[in-house]
Amino acid sequence: MKYVLVTGGVVSGLGKGVTASSIGLLLKSCGLRVTSIKIDPYLNIDAGTMSPFEHGEVFVLDDGGEVDLDLGNYERFLDIKLTRDNNITNGKIHRAVINKERKGDYLGKTVQVVPHVTDAIQDWIERVAMIPVDGQEGPADVCVIELGGTIGDIESMPFIEALGQFSYRVGSGNFCLVHVSLVPVLSVVGEQKTKPTQHSVRGLRGLGLTPNILACRSTEPLDENVKEKLSQFCHVQAENIITLHDVSNIWRIPLLLKDQKAHKAILKVLNLLSVVREPDLVDWTSRAQLCDKLHDPVKIAMVGKYNGLSDAYLSVLKALLHASVACRKKLIVEWVAAGDLELTTKEETRMAAWDLLKGANGILVPGGFGDRGVQGKILAAEYARENRIPFLGICLGMQTAVIEFARNVLNLQDANSTEFDPQTANPCVIFMPEGSKTHMGGTMRLGSRTTYFQTTDCKSAKLYGNVTSVDERHRHRYEVNPSMIKQLESAGLSFVGKDETGERMEICELPLHPYYVGVQFHPEFKSRPGKPSGLFLGLIAAACGQLDTLIPNSGRANQPQSLKKKGITVMINGSSMSNGSSGMKVHQNGNSIKAANGLLNGVYANGNGVHI
Fold it and tell me: What angle do CA 97, 101, 102 make, to 5 degrees?
């Protein structure tokens, strides 16, 4: 097994995650099998109890692991399925060590950070690196490890010590260190400054790790004299100093690495140059070029609770992007704070929010927890239903759609979720019986579950390729009340997807609406470049008037007419949606580097809209 470690210096938010993902993609394009590990130095066991404002979205894996959003980056770039153990935290490591101490495995010894904690870290890495994640048998060829945080953080020290020891454990030729650092330009002098990177590398070397490759974030390509200076002071060969400068779209980052022969530098350190092929990124290059050429906009209103940080909805944004590119549209996300739609909000703010909502081609209400902004989500669902605006509600978004329907169609004015009103006389949404009310971490209904379609004559089933069931990832504590289903369905809300018992509602639709779909699961987590989630594709297609060609009356799902003309096949959940030959497959990744020019996860702020 070969290992590539990606560390970061100077400041956080440089894009270690996308750098690690791009390196993995580049190595995979050379014919190698790649897996990934993310190390988060915080003491939490996992990301499940963290605020989206503080840490971004919680990404959910097939096995129910609640992990750092960077694992979503890895899955989208590499098209793999990771496990909860691919996310290592200080909490997990210390829990494992304490459990062994209590069991008596260290009997008679003083348990210390070195060697017990550092050994546990190394053992964990070696064990998880051997788990196949690409659907093939046997371990991968290369494991890309990302160390979260910044060199010098006190909580990272045990991991840095362990990784220093690990480099010697696996031996020369099996370990390559890529250090991502910042080369800023001071506006006063206009000169690229190397001192921050020099200090970062000096600190890294002082902790026992020597970088083989420097990946330097900057607004412009590094000047040659700057590279020479970095090479001299950081003891890294000039050809191993890579520039990660700002680019037109994030899909160009792997191409940037390839153009600078980063793969050869890594393969040389790992003694793999003679056993791999040249990287095949022809399709990736086409996708990057396609992204720059999209100009016809489609506006989607994101009615969320955590709009202050786009990372809180990162996978939703990427799923929208995958679908919009498949429909050859430039995605514009209009951020609408759910609370701003409510009557209690200041009128000027409320009117601005409603203007954004009414100006959108489609409405998406994502998941969330707590009662803040729920009334705004209900109002957005009502507006979409009454005005026949394409709508997709995810998790809490589906629950608010059900509440709205019960209130305004069934005329149950006090209908609510017991999450928000435990004493409601008409509980449309209830706490799941198997849930825990005393422990919050890891106690929700999590991971991949099977949804069974009750009929194939519905938009959702057709968008999934006319299958009878589909596996999607879940993360929720509350569900639609089974005792109210007959009442809701008799009024026109159709529950077309249920779990294996038939008692838990998974998908609801309004059959006579152009596109009004609510799902209890999170389809965004399994959307992939070139394999857009069918439900997101349906939303975008409906928003830009292509849904009829996507799922025509024949019942067979075909690609939008605009795609047929270009000879492009859209892959949905691994299945082709084309009834003819194709010249290429549309792929898009959903990740980015946080760049100095305002680029944040592929999202550009432009007035009230966010352009992707």
Answer: 120
Instruction: Using alpha carbons, select from 111, 536, 519 the residue that is nearest to residue 322.
Output: 536
| Pairwise CA distance, residues 357 & 387, whole Å | 12
User: Which of 75, 524, 544, 587 is labelled catalytic?
Assistant: 524
Choose the catalytic residue: 57, 522, 544, 587: 522
Whether 395 sits among the annotated catalytic residues: the reply is yes
Please tell me what DSSP assigns to residue 185: B
**Could you give the strand order of the β-sheet that contains 330-337, starting from the edge strand earlier in sequence?**
469-476, 445-453, 494-498, 505-509, 516-519, 391-394, 362-365, 297-304, 330-337, 609-611, 604-606
The closest of 320, 398, 402 to 365, measured between CA atoms, is: 398
Cβ distance 391 to 515 under 8 Å? Answer: yes
Distance CA 67, CA 111 (A): 28
522 assigned to active site: yes
Burial of 132 (0-12, 13-18, 19+ CB in 10 A): middle
* Contacts with 261 (C-beta within 8 Å, 6 or more apart), sequence order: 239
Supply the pTM of this predicted model: 0.88
Distance CA(205)–CA(235), nearest Å, equals 10
**Cβ count near 566 (within 10 Å):** 14
CA distance 72 to 79: 10
Local mean pLDDT, 10-residue blocks, the chain (612 residues): 95 90 96 97 92 88 95 95 97 96 92 96 98 95 96 93 96 95 86 93 93 94 93 94 90 93 96 93 87 93 89 94 92 95 94 96 94 94 97 97 96 93 93 76 88 95 94 94 95 95 95 96 93 95 93 47 42 46 34 34 35 36
Q: Which two tokens stand for residue 248?
A: 């037109």
Q: How far apart are the first and last CA of the chain?
A: 37
Catalytic residue among 395, 428, 508, 544: 395
Pick from 222, 253, 255, 220: which is nearest to 240 by CA?
Answer: 222
329 in Cβ contact with 294 (< 8 Å): yes
**Rounded CA separation 377/250 (Å):** 31
Element holding 488 (H helix, E strand): helix 485-490
Backbone angles phi, psi at 442, to 5 degrees: 70, 20
H or E stretch at 72: helix 70-78
